[in-house]
Write a structure and sequence with these properties.
With 594 residues, the chain is α/β, with parallel strands linked by helices. The longest helix is centred in the N-terminal third of the chain and has 39 residues.
Length: 594
């Protein structure tokens, strides 16, 4: 609803500005045209003097109070004008000529007040349009302000309850007391308790921060006012701070209520002393801090904010008394993903053999939004394939489409590239099979998807919250298995391993600089905001980090080559099967090792 009204306001603003610009252009062109026509019809005073003497002029008209005269010539139907520098001598001259020339006529007219007013108004049109344009610019800001602050984003009933939020049981339990406070604040106030003024929700995109904020308002049955942090920022200084003031004025009038600020890092990032846009951000943040401090203890207003980057926020925003409570909204675990899938599957027509728990196991790391998108993509594929219901193949195809990319059956691939891809993917799969910490291979394919010429898909068996050094090392070995297979089986290397090398190098770098897994440097963190901070570890620290990273990657590559050499026959068999069938399933791959 809010978006449609915003669009209508934007269309209205566009039409108004377009109309003003069109009128301005037309006015300017009209003024130029009139000026040119006026120049064409002008006659100089000296020329007029001579024309009257030589009896070329038929009629002279003068308006009282005007310094110009209209002249009609005998040989022309058009009238011309002439400016009179000195009126008295001209009148005396005309009177003399009237006596001498019986054909000459002279009229004096009383000015038409309406025409005079219209002419004066016409001369002021450019100035009037300029003033109107300036007013409209400020009105444009006002329209945005009203639509965003005075009701467009206000929902008296969000229609979302906690039952509509799955996979966040602990987070919901933490927020139930907020609902209780909004429903019955006196119970807390009688005990001397103060509910948190602000609650910060942070987590990766799609985890459900906005959804759970709406659920709180829905459970408490209070108005929900929402704004995005970027909506406070405007090009005019002070407008952001003004919007913050008006937002909280509105909240105080309709309390109890919830104020939700999405992407608060847009205005809540660390303050600087810079000018321009940074200065405007600082003013907006300062006003937000002042408003949150201005709450009285009996005001039932809860400020919820969401961000993907809590480390960017100003420390003053996070101190007690402002955003007292900070709640992480994580990606759901196995049980959470299953609950989310059940929630989004209610309106989907699933086949009887669909096991949502199995799908949850194959989608580790997926957020709620991604799981919703997964089922939606599966429904689209089922419709496209003319299935009566969503089948297992539809869901598996949707997972591949989301994680790997769109399948490219029509892409023309040369036999040489096809063979290289087959050995590359076979190298990943074979090497992974002999690494204890790596996931089982689910599928290997040389059918292009997205930008990839092929892919090796792994079966995720569990959610991982910590990763050991051994697992990181073996992850690098698996990544470099493709390059090792190319080198050993084809005696050549290609650009196909570029992403593998990039990821492996990143893992090695993080092991040294972030996780403190270096044998020589020890458990220290070299993750710094500014390069000069590394100097505390010595002048040669960057060289040492480079040596350690290279050593880890080189060791992984050597181990990958050894595994390929030890199992070269299996590698050839897997690659040859890929060339024949293009895709190998989990069972077919495991059969090579029996």
């Amino acid at each position: 609803m809010a978006n449609s009204k915003d669009k209508k306001n934007n269309v209205k603003i566009f039409l108004i500005i377009f109309g003003i610009v069109l009128i301005s252009v037309m006015t300017i062109l009209l003024v130029i045209y009139q000026t040119q026509k006026a120049e064409e019809k002008k006659v100089t005073y000296d020329q007029l003097y001579q024309d009257i003497i030589h009896k070329r002029v038929e009629k002279i008209e003068m308006t009282v109070g005007s310094s110009s005269v209209n002249v009609k010539y005998k040989d022309s139907d058009d009238e011309k004008t002439s400016n009179i520098n000195s009126l008295q001598p001209f009148m005396e001259f005309v009177n003399e000529q009237l006596v001498k020339n019986d054909e000459l006529k002279f009229d004096v007219k009383t000015p038409n007040k309406f025409i005079t007013f219209a002419e004066n108004l016409f001369s002021f049109i450019p100035t009037i349009l300029l003033v109107v344009l300036i007013i409209m610019i400020f009105k444009m800001q006002g329209i945005g302000e009203k639509s965003k602050v005075y009701g467009e984003n206000e929902e008296n009933n969000t229609g979302v309850k906690f039952k509509d939020v799955a996979g966040l049981d602990e987070e919901k339990n933490e927020l139930i007391e907020i609902v209780d406070f909004l429903k019955n604040p006196k119970k807390f106030q009688s005990m001397g308790a103060k509910i948190p003024k602000g609650i910060l929700l942070y987590g990766k995109p799609g985890t459900g921060k906005t959804l759970i904020a709406k659920a709180i308002a829905g459970e408490a049955n209070v108005p929900f006012i929402s704004m995005s942090g970027s909506e406070f920022i405007e090009m005019f200084a002070g407008l952001g701070a003004s919007r913050v003031r008006k937002l909280f004025e509105k909240a105080k009038k309709i309390a109890p209520c919830i104020v939700f600020i999405d992407e608060i890092d847009a205005i809540g990032s660390r303050r600087t002393s810079n000018s321009g846009a940074e200065s405007e951000n600082n003013q907006t943040l300062n006003q937000l801090l002042v408003e949150m401090d201005g709450f009285e203890s009996n005001e039932t207003i809860i400020v919820l904010a969401a961000t993907n980057r809590p480390e960017m926020l100003d420390k003053a925003l996070l101190r007690p008394g402002r955003f007292d409570r900070q709640i992480t909204i994580p990606a759901p675990d196995l049980l959470g993903r299953e609950e989310i899938l059940k929630l989004y599957a209610k309106d989907k027509k699933l086949a009887d053999n669909i096991d949502l728990k199995e799908i949850a196991g194959d989608t580790a790391g997926f957020t709620g939004a991604e799981l919703s998108n997964l089922l939606n993509e599966a429904a689209i594929l089922a419709t496209r394939n003319k299935h009566k219901s969503i089948e297992k193949d539809d869901i598996e195809s949707a997972v591949k489409k989301i994680t790997v990319g769109l399948e490219k059956h029509n892409r023309v691939v040369s036999e040489k590239d096809k063979k290289l891809t087959a050995y590359h993917e076979a190298g990943h799969a074979v090497v992974s099979k002999f690494l204890e910490t790596q996931d089982n291979v689910k599928e290997v394919s040389i059918i292009p998807r997205g930008l990839a010429g092929g892919y090796t898909m792994y079966k995720t068996n569990e959610d991982k919250y910590y990763i050991s050094k051994t697992e990181l090392e073996e992850k690098m070995i698996a990544l470099l298995g493709g390059r090792a297979a190319e080198k050993i089986a084809l005696n050549d290397i290609s650009t196909g391993a570029s992403n593998d090398i990039e990821v492996a190098t990143g893992i090695a770098r993080d092991m040294i600089t972030v996780y403190g897994m270096s044998s020589s440097l020890g458990p220290i963190s070299l993750k710094v905001d500014e390069p000069y901070e590394l100097q505390i570890f010595g002048e040669n620290i960057t060289d040492e980090v480079g040596v350690q990273v290279k050593q880890l990657v080189d060791e992984a590559y050597i181990k990958a080559q050894k595994l390929i050499l030890d199992n070269i026959d299996i590698l050839h068999a897997v690659a040859q099967t890929l060339l024949e069938r293009e895709t190998i399933s989990e069972d077919e791959f495991n059969a090579f090792f029996e």
